[in-house]
Design a protein that fits this description.
single chain, alpha+beta, TIM Barrel, Immunoglobulin-like, twelve-stranded mixed β-sheet, three-stranded antiparallel β-sheet
């Protein structure tokens, strides 16, 4: 019994360290140097369930302003040689599932020869994708009827899909923001992506994407930004800036009919235009028990944009006056 208790405590400690380590690696992209790149992360072709072949799919996304496309066919990778250049990246990936979990796994930057048996344990699948140099994102949690417990049982995936266009248009189960908030409230400070998940309907293209911030357009830089959450997700609106300053979270964005802030548990705030038809900025005063904050922008067409969670330090919610007083006290103590 004592051995079992020690094992459980050790497991919980390791899980907590993993969560903490990932949270410490999250960056606010609006505070990072670099350029924005439009990226599609969940794309199928005729290699599996898509409507066009690889070349046509990439051409379609390039025509819509995308600079990064992950081709993520089910169980099979593709030969993407010749599609990338200094202004565009085509990156291999997979969508995988296993009989041991209800989750679908969006595997990014996977090698051509990566294969799995269909009854591989889900955590082993994630581990092996990471060992191969790739990363895993949980695909369409709402559509798959994924529970919070399912998500908490797994470690080391780097995000979830907050919006999936094919699930939204096909079954009205494309938004997984509740799953995301439940994870955040449990201390899993993960970023989230918006995707098309292109299948046979050619109209579902450029309905969900991320704007990723990198210093250079390389596979390594893109993967590092994905790991650190240095991006925001969108199905239409633009987030121009998001920052925490003097105890407030501030956002600037394209024309919106609603701006939402979400923090831990019941904390949050909704902003709607008062004297006009739209708003392009909002400011919300953070309370002392806010551990994180994320923003959501909704435009007149009902399209959304989602910032990733910004972790809040105690100094973020102090007034300038209190910060100066604390600095003065530190100077006195040093003397």
């Amino acid at each position: 019994m004592n051995y079992l208790i020690r094992f459980c405590i050790s497991f919980l400690c390791l899980a907590s360290l993993s969560i903490y380590a990932h949270a410490q690696g999250l960056f606010n992209p609006f505070e990072q140097a670099g350029s924005w790149h439009k990226a599609a992360l969940h794309v199928h072709t005729t290699t599996s369930v898509g409507d066009v072949n690889v070349a046509e799919s990439i051409a379609r996304y390039k025509s819509k302003g995308f600079e990064v496309v992950f081709v993520t066919d089910k169980t099979k990778t593709n030969d993407l040689s010749g599609f990338s250049n200094e202004k565009f990246l085509a990156i291999n990936g997979l969508e995988l599932s296993t009989t041991t979990s209800p989750c679908h796994f969006l595997c990014l930057n996977t090698p051509r020869d990566l294969k799995f048996v269909n009854d591989i344990p889900a955590q082993q699948l994630i581990n092996e994708v990471k060992r191969s140099g790739g990363e895993v994102i949980i695909a369409h949690p709402y559509w798959n009827n994924i529970t919070l417990q399912n998500l908490l049982e797994l470690q080391d995936y780097i995000g979830i899909e907050v919006y999936n266009a094919v699930c939204d248009n096909g079954t009205a189960r494309g938004y997984s923001d509740v799953h995301w908030d439940q994870l955040l409230n449990k201390g899993r400070y993960l970023p989230a992506i918006a995707v098309d998940d292109t299948h046979k309907d050619g109209r579902i293209v450029a309905l969900g994407w991320i704007l990723i911030k990198t210093k250079e357009l390389t596979v390594e830089a893109v993967m590092n930004s994905l790991r650190s959450g240095s991006y925001y997700a969108s199905s239409g609106p633009i987030i121009e800036n998001l920052k925490i300053e003097n105890g407030f979270v501030n956002i600037k964005c394209s024309s919106a009919v609603q701006i939402n802030f979400f923090a831990a548990a019941h904390l949050g705030r909704v902003f709607r235009p008062k004297d006009s038809n739209s708003l392009t900025q909002a400011q919300w005063k953070l309370s002392s028990n806010c551990r994180f904050v994320r923003a959501e922008v909704i435009d007149a067409q009902g399209r959304h944009a989602w910032s990733n969670p910004v972790l809040i330090k105690s100094t973020d919610i102090q007034s300038d006056k209190l910060k100066k007083r604390n600095r003065g006290n530190n100077v006195k103590q040093n003397k």
